[in-house]
Amino acid sequence: MRRVTFLLGVAVFSLSLQGSAQTKSGGNRAAAEALFNQGRSLMTAGKFAEACPKFEASQELDPGLGTMLNLAECYEKTGRTASAWAEYREAIPLARAAGSKARQDLAVERAQALEERLSTLTIRAMSEQSADAQLEVRRDGVAVRSAELGAPIPVDPGEHLIEAQAPGHEPWSSKVQVGPNASKVSVEIPRLKPTGEAAPATQAPIVTTTATTSAPPSDQPASDGSAQRVTGLVLGGAGIVGVGLGTFFGLRASSKWSDAKAKCTDYPYGCGTEGTDLRSSARSAGNVSTIAFVAGGALIATGVVLYLTAPSKKESVALSVGPQSLFVQGSF
């Protein structure tokens, strides 16, 4: 008896779940039908921008071939060519499976017409970054697969947000504008900056120093300042060496860049292994050149100050040091 009661309870519970699911499904279909009708009314009135969200919601609640074709037409009317093309393409096999040749022919015809007008967006990452599985790229908030990088992907005309991030690096983002009528736009993701890394110096800072000295009191022995002058000369000589090294590595960097470009079919793309290595060598030489120029300029400035401010009867010195210039004014 207990077993029979248990089985009856299970049967009643199952029927109630089925009835609840059917009720929910029926509610979705009713809402989808109402939204579809509202979308059709708005389309007829020429209010396409308002009609598209109606069709989208209807399709989400109760997917159907008719709703999909109306949504594709709505996208096409609002200039969203890539979205319309994708909907028409998706409708083709559904129409074929449903045996609706008229709808299949319509979807094929509209998809082919739109294909010639599709605008594309190509997202590229530097070769060493694109090979990094931890690099995450998003287009308008949607993850971009690694296979999509470097490939022209159809997108709707308008503004698109490109984002990139990787562990231990600062995130990067950029907005690009894609035009209509087969516009082709490319964007390259730069090398992501490691977190906390200072930006490299591009030029030596301008330094201005003013110094005025007087002869020591008559009751103290005056220093001839020879040691200070020698130190100034040594530092100045070291600075000249630094500037010379900067010039050498600067010329080397320029030569490497030229060689790298010669190895690329479409610089900075299609460079191959040799072109990439040359580009890396050029970048390293450029960094060394910058550091050498900065250090050399600082040493020359310090040496001049020490030399000119060595004890004497009376001196007034004004010194200005720039990236590629040195000015000294004063009376001695």
Provide structural commentary.
There is one protein chain. The protein has helices spanning 2-44, 48-61, 65-77, 81-98, 101-115, 127-130, 226-262, 272-308; strands spanning 119-125, 136-139, 142-143, 152-155, 158-165, 172-178, 184-189, 207-214, 314-321, 326-331. The chain has 332 residues and is α+β, with helices and mostly antiparallel strands. Mean pLDDT is 78; it is low at 1-24, 199-220 and 313-328. The protein has 3 domains: 24-115, Serine Threonine Protein Phosphatase 5, Tetratricopeptide repeat (Alpha Horseshoe); 119-189, Carboxypeptidase-like, regulatory domain (Immunoglobulin-like); 207-331, no CATH class. α4 (81-98) packs antiparallel against α5. Strands 3-2-5-6 form a 4-stranded antiparallel beta sheet, with no helix packed on it. Strands 4-1-7 form a 3-stranded mixed beta sheet.
Short key terms for the protein model shown above:
55% helix, Serine Threonine Protein Phosphatase 5, Tetratricopeptide repeat, Immunoglobulin-like, alpha+beta, 10 strands, 3 domains, 8 helices, elongated, 4-stranded antiparallel sheet, 332 residues
